[in-house]
Amino acid sequence: VGLLVYLDTDNHHNVTDNYRILGGVCPLSFIEVESWQVRKGHEENHDAVIKEWFSFLRKNHSDMFAEWKSARYYREVDHQGLPTGRFIMNFEFYSAEGHDAYKKRRKDWSGPYEEYKRVDPYEHFIEESVKIEYWEPVEEELWLDFE
């Protein structure tokens, strides 16, 4: 039987400490999933800043986001394929330690992260709707790719 480890915490929590507390080992890959709803009237600005954000990330990946393995963006839909109004960003880090190192380095938005803050889309989110979850892969040897 496989084991799914799920940690629900806030932006400031040190995820690596959770692994130590749980007696676990940090995985090779670590996922942060942020979900949100867009403020009413901010839809166009939200869409534009998401594109700017990806452009900034692509341009600055090696200097500012080297711990990131991937970043993926999704819109939630219902079973009929209709948008629910909720979005997610799936941040894949190489490790939980890398996640924590990045968050620590970026914590006060100084240096190059001051420019990054300008393309941060949070001002377009309904604050109460933001949810952050952490996931790690398990039983990878059982995974299937049908390509």
From TrEMBL:
This is NIPSNAP domain-containing protein.
